[in-house]
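Please, structure for the following, as tokens.
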Amino acid sequence: MNEQKTKETNDSVIEFIENVENSKKRADAYLLLTLFSEVTGYEAKMWGPSIIGFGSYHYVYKTGHEGDAPLVGFSPRKAKISLYFAPGDTEREALLARFGKHTTGKACVYINKVDDIDTDVLRELIVQSVTFLQNQYPRS
């Protein structure tokens, strides 16, 4: 079985954000840190070298592959800011219609800057994602 690549670490979230080169992206990272922390009630943790995650869940796929992942998170990458939400949540599209300027991947939503989005809708996306994952993968 393959070992999970992205794991929770003890690295400093603040140190990671302080090392973001672009000052606007760094400011957005602090804003997102506050927003995600407030909405989830979870302490921010580093997952791998570049993802700031909140809470966690344990998944088991039908294939037998299993692991842990953050409930939600973000990463201020060079090109865009990646926002991590629940994969497989079919309700997400309705909220994204009101979200603002973004592109999407399988589980990620990409934004250029926080000013491009509606932060109230971001709060809704965070709550929806956490609720979806906690229902999908209840703690035993």
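The helical segments are 13-18, 23-40, 92-96, 119-136. The chain has a mean pLDDT of 92.
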